[in-house]
Specification:
The protein is mainly β and 101 residues long. 4% of the residues lie in helices and 66% in strands. The chain has one helix at 60-63, and strands at residues 6-19, 25-39, 42-55, 71-82, 88-99. A five-stranded mixed beta barrel has the order 1-2-3-5-4. Strand 4 and strand 5 form a beta hairpin. Pfam families: SSB_1 (PF22657). GO terms for molecular function: single-stranded DNA binding. Belongs to the PriB family.
Amino acid sequence: MATNHLVLSGTITRSRSFSSPAGIPHCVIMLEHKSQVYEAEMLRNVYCQMQVILSGERFNSITDKLKTGVDIEVKGFIALQRGRNGQNRLVLHAENVELKT
């Protein structure tokens, strides 16, 4: 069985909302994560940025709160997305979002 589940917390650095041609609401945010973890018995600084996509009406009640500087935790799955420049990147498709502030 294949597993695809990711939990990532961080701070929103960008946010935009729009509706698809089919009328489905979407919110796209850039999430910045900073933490420290132990790896090979040494403390390591960890940093990443990941695009997060929230799709569907179930996120309408929280979308207006997802602004730059807000801390959140996102649970969802990752998928490959090809950008307009032809490069591939991993994006996190949200299944649950929790405000941390």
